[in-house]
Amino acid sequence: MKLDKLFTKLEIFFNMDSDKQKENTKKREKLLGLLMEKINSKKEKIKDTKSKEKKEKLKEELTMLKKLSKKYQL
Amino acid sequence: MFRKSFYPIFLLLIAYLLFSSEDAKTIVAGIAIFLIGMVFMEDGFKLFSGGILEKILEKSTKTVPKAITTGFVATAVVQSSSLLTIIVISFLSAELISLSGAIGVIFGSNIGTTTTAWIVSSFGVKIKIAHYAMPMLIFGVIFRFNEKKTYQGMGNVLVGLGFVFLGIGYMKEGFEALKSGLDLAQFAIDGYLGVLVYIIIGAVATVVIQSSSATMALIITALATGQIEYTNALALAIGANIGTTVTAIIGSLSSNANGKRLAVAHFIFNVVTGFIAIVFLYQLADIVDYLSDFIGIGQTDYAMKLALFHTIFNVIGVLAVAPFTNRLVVFLKGLFNEEEKEIQRAKYLDNVVSSVPEAAIKSLQKEVSHLYDDTTDALIKALSLDKKSITGYENNELLSLVEKSITPIDIDTQEFYDKKIKYLYSDIINYASLSQGNMNIEQLDTTYSLKVACRQIVETIKDSNEIQKNIKLYINHKNKYIKAEYNFLRATIIKTLNGIEQLRNDDDEIDILTNIKLLEERLKKLDMIGNGKIDTLIRENKIEPKMATSLINDSAFSYEISKNLLNVAYILWIKDKELLELGEEL
Question: Which residues in B lie closer than 8 A to residue A35 (C-beta atoms)?
Fold first, then answer.
């Protein structure tokens, strides 16, 4: 147990702890960025698609992507 | 029989050696400590590498030259050709690398393993290496007490290195002390007879010690202290190379076809290399002398010369055998054929690999996919459908295709479960339990999810057994309403399967998650019990009460089948942890 505390202290001392937090924040930001990118590209695709069926499918995907990104932002 | 009687004789011989000579005791203790060090180092790298080694191997084995380079560098860094072999077998089994790529890695690994000889001859015998062992052991043990697997892995590597250094120190000390009492060099044998005798001694020593690195350390320390002659040491090194393949062949006996193929490739390589080295031994010794002058190795520095010889003859072996890799692949595939068996067992799992977490997870993922594919093939038949007639269509075309397929297909799903699924399922669960020992929390989570996926796949086949009887009964029934409802159930499952087939090869995991979630939403809308469709049919007297109860039950089974299939797809084809958590939340 004492050794464990020592390691935790060492991690804090060497900033490894905040590195992890930074890494997690980076990951979240990256995924959120990817989701937003996807949403925008879907919007573009909907504009460019003439087929009604395909348009409908893309719209469904767009709605789901929006739901996912909204949930992720919470 | 031989093994049983050999073991006590071997123990007695060691005991006699230990009691009769203090120096022999020091040497044997050195070998034992060295071997323990190798075990610790290997265990450490398994925990410590965190999948880096696996990622490198997966990406850098496309061509044979690339694979050879990767095998060389990886073995030189981790100092364990057996760890590399384990990972290569798992990747080969999981079809992540080709057989020619795997063979290339093994060839390269043979050159990489010669770096041990360089380390021992350059540091081990020239400086008091045992002094460096103590701090390594102390810090290694401290790290080993930590709860985190990375620290434990680092600790194991340090403890391993410490023991290796300590072992070399003991061997050197033992040989130096032995020299004052007994000069082994007096047993030197000249000419080709000496070469053959020492090759056999080297091979037998490696088979007994089970490590060519330990044998090489022993040869180099004996040579450095003048206990054996240089030419005899060269023959011993060739023998050690041959001996190590015997160990590999014995190890592969319980392995799958891929393990056997690699072991035989290794055997062929080492025998050919050994043969070349024996025939051209004196010429090779001249080349070593020439190169030694060139790179600044002293005339009498025989330990370093031996390390150079070890590297040169392995490089020559690779140059001689590598051009025939493709022929070797054809030969090995013919030699160990994977037959279609009556009882289905795991295709991608090899117990040798279970101790390397990342490799074990990759093998498990591949095997669960295999279980999924086999189960869905049977499921399609249980729905009285032919896979070929529904493949490649869009979801909106599927209902009419299902309506046209009205010929009942006989498949005994219980027998299918007993012969094809049950054993495969138990193999996966057994393997997952075996692999969990070295895993970190994240890896344990992934393994747990894969076990859940397996259970859901098995439930799918059991549920399909329940609906199969009524499907056969109602797809040709004169009551058009019940017929339509059962076709609807069949089409719902097929649409889910079709949707999964379309997304499983997608590289973009966000797309995969989006499509799984869309399929889930559609499935909820189609749930007959939930949407009151069956109530309407009963109220309007369109189906009989008996039909209604069957439909209620089968509708629930169909819904469960589709839901389970989507859960399995989610576990198998989304690897990103963040996305997985997001999917679970929604």
Answer: 510
Kindly list the residues from chain A whose CB atom is less than 8 angstroms away from the CB atom of residue B521. 64
Which residues on B lie below 8 Å from A38 (Cβ)? 510-511, 514
Which stretches of A14-51 are DSSP H helices?
16-48
Distance CA B220, CA B207 (A): 18
Note whether B375 and B278 are same-domain residues: no
Both B322 and B362 in one domain: the answer is: no
| B65 and B174 fall within a common domain | yes
For residue B289 the two structure tokens come to 């002398």
Place of tokens 């050919």: B272
Domain extent for B382: 351-585
Q: What pTM did the predictor assign?
A: 0.63
Q: Is some CB atom of chain B closer than 8 A to the CB atom of A71?
A: yes
Q: Do B263 and B228 belong together in one domain?
A: yes
Among A7, A53, A71, the residue with its CB nearest the CB of B582 is A71
pLDDT tens string B375-422: 998 899 888 888 877 777 777 777 778 888 888 888 888 888 888 888
Q: Are B582 and A68 inside 8 Å of each other by CB?
A: yes
Looking at the fold, whether B54 and B89 belong to one and the same domain comes out as yes
* Predicted pLDDT at B185: 59
Specify if B5 maps to a domain. no
At residue B154, the pLDDT reads 84
Q: Which residue of B142, B510, B521 is in closest CB contact with A34?
A: B510
CB < 8 Å to A72, chain B: 582
Assigned domain for B115 exists: yes
Chain A residue whose CA is closest to B585: A71
Q: Are residues B132 and B263 in the same domain?
A: yes
B379 found inside a domain: yes
Highest mean pLDDT among B61-65, B225-229, B383-387, B561-565: B561-565
Say what the pLDDT of residue B466 is.
87
- A11 interfacial to chain B (CB closer than 8 Å): no
ipTM of the complex: 0.75
pLDDT in tens, B50-68: 566 667 777 788 888 898 9
State the Cα–Cα distance between residues B323 and B321, nearest whole angstrom.
Answer: 6
Q: Are residues B92 and B187 in the same domain?
A: yes
- Long-range contacts: B413-417, Cβ < 8 Å, 24+? B413/B378, B413/B382, B413/B461, B413/B462, B413/B464, B413/B465, B413/B468, B414/B465, B416/B378, B416/B461, B417/B458, B417/B461, B417/B462, B417/B465
Provide the number of structural domains found in chain B.
Answer: 2
How many angstroms separate the CA of residue B556 from the nearest CA in chain A?
A: 26
Over 80: is that where the pLDDT of A20 sits? Answer: no
